[in-house]
Design goal:
Blueprint: H1 2-15, E1 19-22, E2 24-25, H2 29-35, H3 39-45, E3 60-61, E4 70-76, E5 81-88, E6 94-97, H4 104-107, E7 121-130, E8 135-147, E9 150-162, E10 174-177, H5 191-197, E11 205-209, E12 219-222, E13 230-238, E14 241-242, E15 245-254, E16 257-260, E17 265-269, E18 276-277, H6 280-289, E19 293-294, E20 300-302, E21 313-317, E22 320-324, H7 326-329, E23 330-333, E24 336-339, E25 341-342, E26 349-352, H8 354-357, E27 360-365, E28 370-376
Parallel strand pairs: 3-7, 5-10, 6-9, 17-26, 18-25
Antiparallel strand pairs: 1-12, 2-4, 4-5, 4-8, 6-10, 7-8, 8-9, 11-12, 11-27, 13-28, 14-15, 15-16, 15-17, 15-21, 18-26, 19-20, 20-24, 21-22, 23-24, 27-28
């Protein structure tokens, strides 16, 4: 009987319409700065601080991650004004640039004009978002936000009045946070929470597929799971904290040897961070095990010719092994080859960013407080 119920529920799921947001894998800030010959200067001026966004100060933090590259299009207001945003499971607020902002970062991005929306309402609170360096300041407001065909009424979001210079090199206009309300700046109800509250999704979960090299195919699905993007079983891992999408990591191993996270640690699955980030000693150890040399900025370079011979790295999460091959953790560009293991995590918290998510289709179950992982195809 149970088996038939499973088949039935699968058929029901297939008949539901999936709300898909295509994600574009764009040029990253690092590539933009490298092409302009500004990367060396920027990297000194704005050190990479991936943990900035995870320090709870009551303000929403973002980080200078020069490799944020996946973004999708949403619209705000009536009639709709379109913006490209990074769908970030490591933060909880939505914000976009506004016509009241004259920072360079606003001038080269789309800006929201409240006066052109009949459904717009000002909030009564300012908003401040801390970056690794500099910040974005602005105001809270509310309006209709449309995401992948889902129209969310009275969504509170931030509109910027000033933005840090680094943002000028970001492809996306703003950020849409998909973590929990408990860490939202000003305790704003996040977009996905409102989708659930307003009964706009068939299931209280969303899922993320990030394609590897080619630009096409990446997507976030709200309210469902797209079976075309993974193969085999889904492993379900309980959250250890419903703040970020945080889970228990048992160890990081290479060739059967524990090389990091010895004795266990906590990790968060974060679409808004491009790398796998951990404590400096652990990351240095991993990089030396795979044969990388680390420069003064903590960037680990490898000989592009060696990728075929480099070992797999295994992340054991809640007793289950998830392996990432060298072809996935090494990025190749005109400027050479780097590993996707970044310093700057804390002993308390690792970040499993896009390097990991490209290998494993990720389901974020907000109601049951589980993460589902399955091998991407």
């Amino acid at each position: 009987m149970m088996k038939w119920l499973v088949v039935l529920s699968a058929l029901v799921a297939f008949s539901e319409c999936l709300h898909k947001i295509p994600l574009i894998k764009g040029k990253t800030a690092r590539q933009d700065l490298q092409e302009k010959g500004l990367w060396e200067q920027y990297r000194k001026e704005f050190p990479y601080n991936p943990m900035a966004k995870f320090i709870q100060t009551g303000t929403e933090s973002m980080t200078n991650d020069a490799d944020l590259s996946y973004y999708g299009v949403i619209s705000i207001g009536t009639p709709p004004q379109s913006f490209s945003v990074i769908f970030d499971t490591g933060s909880s607020n939505l914000w976009i640039p506004s016509v009241y902002c004259s920072s360079q970062a606003c001038e080269n991005h789309k800006r929201f004009n409240p006066q052109q929306s009949s459904t717009f309402h000002w909030g009564n609170r300012p908003l401040s978002i801390q970056y690794g360096t500099g910040s974005m300041t602005g105001y809270l407001a509310s309006d209709t936000v449309e995401v992948g065909g889902i129209s969310v009424a009275n969504q509170v979001f931030g509109i910027s009045q000033s933005e840090a210079p680094f943002m000028a090199h970001m492809k996306a206009d703003g950020i849409l946070g998909l973590a929990f309300q408990s860490i939202a700046s000003d305790n704003v109800v996040p977009v996905f929470d409102n989708m659930i509250k307003q009964n706009l999704v068939s299931q209280p979960l969303f899922s993320v597929y990030l394609s590897s090299n080619n630009q096409q195919g990446s997507e976030v699905v709200f309210g469902g799971i797209d079976g075309n993007h993974y193969t085999g079983q889904v492993s379900w891992i309980p959250l250890t904290s419903a703040t970020y999408w945080q889970i228990k990591m048992d160890s990081v191993t290479i060739n059967g040897q524990t090389v990091a996270c010895s004795g266990g640690c906590q990790a968060i699955i974060d679409t808004g961070t491009s790398l796998i980030v951990g404590p400096t000693n652990d990351i240095n150890n991993m990089n030396s095990w795979v044969g990388a040399s680390t420069n003064q900025y903590g960037e680990a370079t490898v000989n592009c010719q060696n990728i075929q011979r480099m070992p797999e790295v295994t992340f054991t999460l809640n007793g289950k092994a998830f392996t990432v091959p060298a072809s996935a953790y090494v990025s190749q560009s005109y400027y050479g080859c780097n590993t996707g293991f970044g310093q700057g995590g804390s002993d308390q918290l690792w970040i499993l960013g896009d390097v990991f998510i490209r290998e494993y289709y990720t389901i974020f179950d907000a109601q049951s407080k589980y993460i589902g992982l399955a091998k991407s195809v």
